[in-house]
Write a structure and sequence with these properties.
The protein is an alpha/beta fold. It has eleven helices and twelve strands. The protein is about 30% helix and about 20% strand. The strands form two sheets. An eight-stranded mixed beta sheet has the order 6-7-8-3-9-10-12-11. The longest helix has 18 residues. It is globular, with a radius of gyration of 21 Å.
Length: about 325
């Protein structure tokens, strides 16, 4: 069976002006990313802020136009389609935004907000069917249909994100890009929204691209995880393999940054901390872009860009030295 979504060597660049008489510089936000996503599967995309996660999701949805590369959805190449040709596919491609309040139109009622993509996708649908579908969507996300006549300012942040989820799923899409959907919420509310997304995926057979900087959250949603750094894929693996035996030092540092609930265990942990700041994407390091912060970097890392190599059991890693640490960087090289 072919994948629902296929991305091949996707690149997204933005021009950055540097003054009236200077040529613009180019910021590479996504640099040669490839991935596959099956129907009903969830892929987590993680990394620090500024690593290109959101730009990747928006480029896949064609909210940002890719500079090069191929994006296929259900066998159809969508990266080169015109907006008119892309419009019939929009109902299958939806998004949940990071800001639960800012993503909702304050001038519309909640019912109108949830109904809007349905009315656009199904222009012949009757008003009675719209009200019924809105009520079903509201109930499914845990908000009563009676709340449809209220406005966004009357709801909490968590409730607004539920509204955003209802809006995304009302067209019965096949793929939803969840762009940091819980980062703006309280910790207690995050768990509720994550559980809701997991339930919807199971019940409706949705495919997710789940973008987050929080690996603890991604672990509860995604079956596979991809790690980005400065727009490049550092590592990709099935969830349990990545969390138990990471092969890239950047992945290990991200995992070590996740706190544990037990204070005794937390104090006793040894951490692979990152030094320095994230380099500017306008002037990324040569070779491996992570080398300036990597404790394992050698001369080869500066001169040669590592390719994304298979490491067994669905595991891929872009590191010249991953074979020196076969146990997932849990000890010194033998």
């Amino acid at each position: 069976m072919s994948a629902l979504l296929t991305v091949e060597d996707l690149v997204v660049r933005f021009p950055v002006t540097r003054g009236m008489f200077r040529a613009p510089a180019w910021l590479t936000a996504v640099d040669g990313v490839s991935l596959e996503l099956d129907a009903g599967e969830a892929l987590g995309i993680v990394g620090e802020s500024g690593c290109g996660k959101s730009t990747l999701g928006r480029a896949i949805l064609r909210l940002v136009r890719p500079s090069s590369g191929i994006v296929r959805f259900d066998g159809i190449r969508i990266d080169a389609l015109s907006q008119r040709a892309l419009r019939p596919l929009r109902r299958d491609l939806q998004v949940v935004f990071q800001d639960p309040v800012g993503s909702l139109n304050p001038r519309l009622t909640v019912g109108q907000i949830v109904a809007e993509p349905l009315v656009i996708a199904e222009r012949a649908i009757g008003s009675d069917d719209v009200r019924r579908r809105v009520a079903e969507a509201m109930e499914r996300v845990g908000l009563g249909a009676a709340l449809a006549n209220r406005y966004p300012h009357e709801f909490s942040g968590g409730q607004c994100q539920r509204i955003g989820i209802a809006r995304a799923m009302i067209t019965r899409p096949r793929l939803i890009v969840c762009d940091e959907p819980v980062s703006a919420l309280d910790v207690s509310v995050q768990g509720q929204v994550v559980n809701l997304l997991a339930d919807l995926q199971r019940d409706l057979g949705l495919a997710y691209l789940f973008i987050s900087h929080n690996l603890a959250v991604v672990r509860h949603v995604a079956a596979r995880v991809m790690v980005l750094y400065l727009g490049r894929v550092m590592e990709e693996a099935p969830r349990e393999r990545l969390y138990s035996a990471p092969l890239h030092p950047y992945t290990r540092a991200l995992l070590d940054a996740v706190p544990t609930a037990d204070p005794g265990v937390e104090r006793a942990r040894s951490r692979a901390t990152l030094g320095g700041d994230l380099p500017s994407p306008l002037d990324p390091p040569s070779g491996c872009v992570f080398r300036t912060r990597c404790p394992l970097a050698i001369a080869r890392c500066a001169g040669e860009r590592p390719s994304l190599e298979p490491a067994g059991q669905g595991h891929r890693v872009a590191c010249h030295r991953w074979r020196d640490w076969p146990q997932g960087l849990h000890g010194p090289a033998k």
